[in-house]
């Protein structure tokens, strides 16, 4: 398990070991902003604590890599250079009821471990958590 | 055929899933393991006739295939041949451990589309090709091949582990495995004409051998044994024969005795479940092999239990039939009438059963109409012959 061991040494780097060692998974957190319309400032403080506890648990387990939560989709700007010139547009790339609100990046041995952590993610309680494995170094 | 060639082919048939499970378990890369294994088999076909069959053919094949895999991984990792990859060096193994349960758990993983659980298992554990699987599921070969590739890519990309989950997580995962095996059995042979009964029985035997103390795994294996035993009795002279009209002399007695023993072992564990109930119903029918009369009371009770525990349409139609043998066609019709109309509208067995009850009630016009509907939903030739004969007998009385 030499590869895996050397990888454990360098925490918080986003890469994937060649053979089966560690895998990096990103949780994309989707929810419907309408579900939060009625939340009071106290509710938000409570939410923040819940997420803080989750981050703490990830860190304690040594699997935490990164997280962020995002401003509302109504503030999004979308850019593409696919047509040859850079085009900047107001709004998200797709209008959907459930929008990307944040993400977590963790590194764990396999999908079962990722599913286990995703199940504990507070976002799973009211929205959806999409699990995507890292493709870095896999091609 | 040369003995060595036959040895290679026998190993291929008997050990395919076992070898693939071992080869794929480290990397979750099923496709590469399949390629490596097929190269090892073709090497065996060349070398064994010349050098003789090795003492342990399985271990030989694993070693050769694993060396292939290591070469491939070295290339992918862009390592020079002299670089050390200690965790990948193939240990000489004398006993190839059986990791087929791990493989089955991967095939029926919750992250994989449930529709693909059975096809994946048929390919990975049994070595069936996309064409054979496509035929059974009425899907073109190319489409089935593409779906299988996609599922294997997902397993690899996500590092779906070849592992047995801890106790509290294991039981839903095993349910999915059993459901997938049952899926192979229930691929409707009446519609496709290409049943997978033998394959399902094989998978059930593998599972029950790995889980000798799991009552439902034993129950499932028993159920599949009873069903496979009747293979030669269900179509006679091109006509479908319903279970209670089958000639027990055409049943495969060793398979029935094996299934009876399996069900006894399951019952002794004292955990009732859906598959054991289904197997117990089959066991009642199977008693006719010992010249016993059909016990419809026992069958009715078991069907009632099954309908409570696991109320599928099939179970409820079975209950209606059993009940009608005790209390007449009115009781049977009443059970059918309670089923959700939209769900039974396209169900051949519902209309055929209903037609049978109506004929018994003397409502010949309605019976003829119901047979008509059943026929319109039936494509399997032997079953069409059966239904047509029933229908003409009624039309003749009108």
UniProtKB/TrEMBL annotation, chain A:
Source species, domain of life: Bacteria
InterPro entries hit by this protein: Dimeric_a/b-barrel, YCII
A Pfam family of this chain: YCII
Ranges of residues in domain YCII-related: 49-132
Alphabetized PANTHER family for the sequence: BLL7171 PROTEIN, BLL7171 PROTEIN-RELATED
Protein family per UniProt: Belongs to the YciI family.
Name listed for the protein in its UniProt record: YCII-related domain protein
Organism: Planktotalea frisia
Automatic annotation (TrEMBL), chain B:
Ranges where the RNA polymerase sigma-70 region domain occurs: 14-77
InterPro entries with a match to the protein in the record: DUF6596 (IPR046531), RNA_pol_sigma70_r2 (IPR007627), RNA_pol_sigma_r2 (IPR013325), RNA_pol_sigma_r3/r4-like (IPR013324)
Any GO BP: DNA-templated transcription initiation
Pfam families on file: DUF6596 (PF20239), Sigma70_r2 (PF04542)
Superkingdom of origin: Bacteria
Molecular function per GO: DNA-binding transcription factor activity
Segments forming domain DUF6596: 173-266
UniProt xrefs under SUPFAM superfamilies: Sigma2 domain of RNA polymerase sigma factors, Sigma3 and sigma4 domains of RNA polymerase sigma factors
PANTHER family: BLL6612 PROTEIN (PTHR47756:SF2), BLL6612 PROTEIN-RELATED (PTHR47756)
Name the UniProt record assigns to this protein: RNA polymerase sigma factor
Organism: Planktotalea frisia
Record lineage: Bacteria, Pseudomonadati, Pseudomonadota, Alphaproteobacteria, Rhodobacterales
């Amino acid at each position: 398990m030499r590869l895996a061991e050397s990888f454990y040494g360098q925490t918080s780097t986003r890469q994937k070991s060649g053979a089966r060692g560690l895998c990096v998974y990103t949780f994309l957190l989707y929810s419907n902003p309408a579900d939060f319309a009625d939340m009071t400032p106290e509710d938000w403080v409570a939410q923040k604590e819940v997420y803080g506890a989750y981050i703490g648990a990830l860190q304690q387990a040594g699997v935490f890599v990164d997280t962020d939560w995002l401003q509302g989709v109504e503030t999004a700007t979308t850019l593409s250079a696919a047509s040859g010139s850079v085009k900047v547009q107001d709004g998200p790339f797709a209008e959907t009821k459930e929008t990307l609100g944040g993400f977590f990046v963790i590194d764990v041995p396999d999908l079962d471990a990722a599913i286990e952590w995703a199940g504990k993610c507070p976002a799973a309680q009211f929205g959806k958590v999409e699990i995507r494995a890292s493709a870095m170094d896999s091609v | 055929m040369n003995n060595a060639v036959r040895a290679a082919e026998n190993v291929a048939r008997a050990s395919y899933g076992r070898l693939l499970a071992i080869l794929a378990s480290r990397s979750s890369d099923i496709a590469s393991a399949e390629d490596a294994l097929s190269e090892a088999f073709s090497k065996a076909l060349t070398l064994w006739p010349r050098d003789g069959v090795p003492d342990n053919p399985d271990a030989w094949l694993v070693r050769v295939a694993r060396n292939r895999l290591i070469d491939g991984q070295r290339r992918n990792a862009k390592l020079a041949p002299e670089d050390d990859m200690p965790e990948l060096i193939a240990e000489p193994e004398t006993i190839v451990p059986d990791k087929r349960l791990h493989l089955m758990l991967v095939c029926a993983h919750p992250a994989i589309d449930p529709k693909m659980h059975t096809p994946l298992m048929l390919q990975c554990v049994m070595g069936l090709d996309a064409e054979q699987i496509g035929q059974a599921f009425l899907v073109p070969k190319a489409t089935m091949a593409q779906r299988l590739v996609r599922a294997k890519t997902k397993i690899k990309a996500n590092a779906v582990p070849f592992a047995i989950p801890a106790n509290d997580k294991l039981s839903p995962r095993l349910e999915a495995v059993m459901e997938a095996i049952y899926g192979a059995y229930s691929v409707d042979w009446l519609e496709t004409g290409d049943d997978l009964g033998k394959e399902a029985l094989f998978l059930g035997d593998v599972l029950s051998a790995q889980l000798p103390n799991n009552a439902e795994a034993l129950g499932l294996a028993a159920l599949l044994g009873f069903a496979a035993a009747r293979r030669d009795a269900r179509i006679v002279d091109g006509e479908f024969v319903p279970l209670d009209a089958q000639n027990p002399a055409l049943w495969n007695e060793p398979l029935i005795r094996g299934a009876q023993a399996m069900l006894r072992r399951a019952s002794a564990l004292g955990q009732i479940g859906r598959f054991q109930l289904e197997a117990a119903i089959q066991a009642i029918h199977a008693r006719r092999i010992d010249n016993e009369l059909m016990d419809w009371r026992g069958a009715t009770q078991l069907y009632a239990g099954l309908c409570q525990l696991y109320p599928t349409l099939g179970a409820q139609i079975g209950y209606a039939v059993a009940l009608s043998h005790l209390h007449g066609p009115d009781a049977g019709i009443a059970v059918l009438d309670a089923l959700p109309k939209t769900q039974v509208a396209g169900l051949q067995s519902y209309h055929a059963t209903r037609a049978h009850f109506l004929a018994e009630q003397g409502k010949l016009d309605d019976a003829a109409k119901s047979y008509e509907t059943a026929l319109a939903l039936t494509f399997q030739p032997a079953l069409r012959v059966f239904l047509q004969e029933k229908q003409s007998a009624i039309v003749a009385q009108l």
